[in-house]
Amino acid sequence: MASLLRSPLSFAAFDASSAEASSQFFWKPLEPPKIGNSSLNLVRTSNARLRIRGSVEEKHTPARKASKEPFRLTRKLTENERQVFEEEGQVLDPFQELEYRFERFKRKNYVENMVDYQNLAERQSPKFMVIACADSRVCPSNILGFQPGESFTVRNVANLVPPFQHGASETSAALEFAVNSLEVENILIVGHSRCGGIQALMSMKDNADSRSFIKDWVSIGKSARLSTKAAAGNLSFEMQCRHCEKESINGSLLNLLTYPWIEKRVSEGTLSLHGGYYDFIDCTFEKWTLVYREGLEGGSKYAIKNRALWS
Amino acid sequence: MSTAAVHCVAPLVGANKPKAAAAARPAGVLSSLNNSSGSKKKNASSAPSPSFPRLIRNSPVFATPTTATPAVEMEPVERVKSGFTDFKKEVYEKKTDLFADLKEGQSPKFMVFACADSRVCPSVVLNFQPGEAFTIRNIANMVPPYDQVKYAGVGAAIEYAVLHLKVENIMVIGHSRCGGIKGLMSIKDDGTTSTDFIEDWVKICLPARDKVKANYSSLPFEEQCTQCEKEAVNVSLHNLKTYPFVKDAVEKKSLKLIGAYYDFVNGVFETWED
Which residues of A172-210 are buried (b: 16+ CB within 10 A; e: fewer)? Predict the structure, then answer.
């Protein structure tokens, strides 16, 4: 039963180029489950404008609302139906799947921890800010088990942090909010193996002809690429990429210190900067902490401490 | 017990823990527990922040009732380490086929824009498994319009997702009590800013603010913010279509744009198609 319920959506493991895979994913929309006496009215607002609660702008059926009470009869129905569909080899349409998952979250997490969610609704006070890659395989909540309220998480291509001088970017705005408003105590940059963004950085040719967003963005990591070529230029391309993945984390950590309000807090000791590298080839996690000695010049200003490898 | 229940997990603190219940501070549960622990003090910054960073997490990481295990205080690094070792043991080593495939590449069907807010991780709320969703998280889950100079970061992500990964759905998820949207709604009408980057960023959704101020001026501020949270999702969906590769894919019907709103105050998740 558990395996039926929790088998990931089957498409995830398929090769993107497989036509069969994509056709397996989309199905005829299912009839919404009929649920007897519940407070639920099922529908999704398709092809419709924004639904403002309480107003009737266009003809629509009410959006599904979950009450605070735990589900009883309804839970059974949904799981049974899902089981039936799984047995018949059917895959749910994306909306149905999302709806099912949200109900499950609500049942198993939200309702169980109502007090905590009520507190969280008032305010968040995470101890961590995490900067991770957008890669679907490396969500920090999955691999590091962060629960709601624990980590303010920014995800971008190749977990890069542009320097302060780079100007406006979504990452800079997030840093400002996390450090100045939320006053997080730790910033953790998490890189990972087989990163497509780093691969693009390492493959970049210097001709200005073919411009792309990806090239423009990953160029932030150019210094990591240079030091990789210098240190590991004789290794295979894959090893160079691996080296660069780690170098770019350090480059981003140093870029963090170009932000005056970050540098100030690190010097005061109220903010710590950490690097992390998740290798999903052998499932290990390497972590280290940046040491910053303000006032010293040259190489001894920065150091690494507390390096550890978890495997 | 299902292993993937890791994601729908044990609470931050036990519901029957007296310290949490007694917390009258405006600060969240975590810092209230930190303060009551009375550990060594740091030099105080202006805010009354807890002395020594600690995180609370129950173990084991299953969706067991909160009464089962007491909360365990942890150092930040210890916290991260235990999260990773649990993931490795309970997820990675139990789904070897999935992870073997994922080593070779990813082929997510979803691209998700979510807020960086610690309360709204889509992997937790929608239980996205590794490999399912290419996820961008930024302040207020905004998608800026196509701009090669200013917004290369978001452009790179969309470009990669649509052209290289060939995702089939892009979902933008807004949420309740969004600090970024509140910031947007609080920007002074004369346009002066007080932050280095935040206000510039949230101004992406000024059209949402304008619409809300025009149509809902009679509502109290908090409710205007709620309307703006939803309207901003629509602005982002509209901005997505200014990227030529997105527009093409939508016209060819190989890409669907989805708006969503997660209300953690009432426990509701709404979706709509663009």
Answer: bbbbbbbbbebbbbbbbbbbbbbbbbbbbbbebeeeeee
B145-184 tens-digit pLDDT: 998 888 889 999 999 999 999 999 999 999 999 999 999 9
Task: Say which range, A70-79, B149-158, B242-251, has the weakest mean pLDDT.
Answer: A70-79
**What is the distance between the alpha carbons of residues A288 and A291, in angstroms, rounded to a whole number?**
10
Handedness of CA B211, B212, B218, B221 (dihedral sign): negative
| A181 and chain B in contact, CB less than 8 A | yes
Q: Is the ipTM of this complex over 0.85?
A: no
CA B35, CA A270: separation in Å to the nearest integer? 16
Residues in chain A with CB shorter than 8 Å from the CB of B107 are: 11-12, 14-16, 21
Please identify among residues 238-297 of chain A the ones whose CB lies closer than 8 Å to any CB of chain B: 265, 268-270, 272, 274, 276, 280-281, 283, 285, 287, 289
DSSP string, A64-97: P---SSPPSHHHHHHHHHHHHHHHTT----HHHH
Take residue B119 and report the two structure tokens written for it. 């309360």
Which positions ≥6 away from B163 have C-beta within 8 Å? Answer: B245
Spell out which residues of chain A touch residue B89, defining contact as CB-CB under 8 Å. Answer: none
